[in-house]
Design goal:
6-stranded antiparallel β-sheet; about 325 residues; 13 strands; 12 helices; alpha+beta; Endonuclease, Chain A; single chain; 7-stranded mixed β-sheet; Aspartate Aminotransferase, domain 1
Length: about 325
């Protein structure tokens, strides 16, 4: 049996499979509990998925529980009342590893109707105070004077989140570059990643091992992990970010340590790129105080972004 950490890594990889509504896993050792944010008849959806994959299996019902045995030593228990599913049995882990991504893929083919019906806002989105609104992103960009200008801290923070969210959403390759980042901004990056799971984005955080003020990045990362474990949803007081989601986010944020004194976020996809430069550090000292900083936004070619912004920081190569 793999270790708890190894199991968490595997579950985070399975969770990365795109789904029309949020699905999460909780490893209880002897069983895996599968939960979903969908508030409708998700049980019927689960049963349709398993009947498509295992048409010859017998489904047994007792009270609110439907039991399915997809393989020897594996039992799936779906609670009709709660939508909760438990994967149990002596071979449950091997079956989960070998088959559950296929289960989710089959579910995606069946889930268009559920996707259209779901209207409950995602907890992560509410926490970020952010809606996926392309027009809002463009409206914010239009507020920047031509050639750049001095903007207020709250505007820069809102634009920072909105642009990163927009770039994640279109599956771009992102670079978040700052000599000073705090745990709240790092937490927000992780939440934005989780919110946009399945878009095939790639993200690199470029920051020194130690900030000019002596803050060690490893310590900031450790504090961020504790924040993710402690932060609760307002109504149900459940964890906002599960261990599985946290593991996935940690594994998919690439960190490049470099010493420098510039701040920008940038993204490219195919041959087009965008960059937002600012004098603001991605830190509460700039985003949570009455601070004013320079902001400039530009569109450029991917080659120019790599040559003029990324190559000097050692995070990409350039073909001349």
């Amino acid at each position: 049996m793999p270790s708890k950490k190894e199991r968490l890594q595997v579950l985070s990889q399975i969770w990365a499979t795109p789904t029309p509504f949020d699905i999460d896993f909780f490893d209880k050792g002897s069983e895996i509990v599968v939960v979903t944010s969908y508030k409708g008849d998700v049980t019927s959806w689960w049963l349709r998925v398993f009947k498509a994959l295992y048409p010859d299996q017998v489904y047994r019902e007792k009270a609110d529980i439907t039991k399915i045995k997809p393989s020897d030593g594996v039992t799936l228990k779906v609670n009709k009342r709660t939508g909760l599913m438990k994967v149990t049995g002596k071979n449950h882990w091997r079956w989960m590893v070998d088959n559950f991504s296929e289960v989710l893929d089959q579910g995606n083919a069946d889930a268009q109707e559920l996707e259209e019906q779901q209207s409950v806002a995602d907890s992560v989105t509410r926490y970020l105070q952010l809606d996926k609104n392309v027009e809002e992103v463009q409206d914010l960009l239009d507020m920047i004077p031509e050639g750049g200008g001095i903007m207020q801290h709250d505007f820069i923070m809102r634009l920072w989140k909105s642009l990163i969210d927009d770039w994640f959403g279109c599956g771009a390759t992102l670079y978040i570059v700052t000599p000073r980042i705090d745990e709240e901004r790092l937490f927000q990056i992780f939440l934005l990643m989780i919110r946009n799971k399945g878009t095939a984005f790639n993200v690199t955080l470029v920051t020194p091992e130690k900030s000019p003020e002596g803050e060690k990045f490893k310590k900031i990362l450790s504090v961020t992990q504790r924040m993710m474990k402690k932060t609760r949803t307002p109504r149900s007081q459940k964890r906002l970010v599960s261990d599985v989601k946290m593991q996935w986010a940690m594994e998919n944020l690439h960190v490049h340590n470099e010493n420098f004194s510039t701040n920008f976020i940038a993204a490219y996809k195919d041959e087009e790129a965008e960059v937002l430069t600012t004098t603001a550090h991605f830190h509460k000292s700039h985003f949570h105080t009455n601070q004013k900083d320079n902001v400039c936004y530009n569109k450029l070619s991917t080659q120019d972004l790599k040559r003029n912004y990324l190559f000097p920081l050692g995070v990409t190569t350039v073909n001349y």
